[in-house]
Amino acid sequence: MSDNFCVTITHCKTDPDKATLGFVVANAAQGSEKETMVFLSSDGVWCALEEEMSRVDEGAPFAPLKDLVDKFLRAGGKIYVCTPCMKKRGISEDMLIEGATPAGGAALVEWLSNGSPAVAY
Known about the structure:
The structure is a single chain. Helix content is 37%, strand content 20%. By secondary structure, the chain is α/β, with parallel strands linked by helices. The mean pLDDT is 97.
């Protein structure tokens, strides 16, 4: 069994519930001692911007997205943000939250090629 786990998130503004659920699962994986990577692509790249993630609060029983992201990073989780998706939306590296790293699809492929299970939101 793999010690890694991957959550891909392709929504934020378009479906905030999926962004929230993705980070709920990422926190569960990180809390289960899995080295966990969140890969943000498409509309999901907005999850890596302070202003946008602060707008997402799906209400009880879920914590606000900002709290979920902060918890994930404090626990050692990794966030990679699709570079072409950022460029398409006019997002530069300096706009990303601390702890989010721009990356191409190769980073995702490398993570998954080591046998990591993955879920997508």
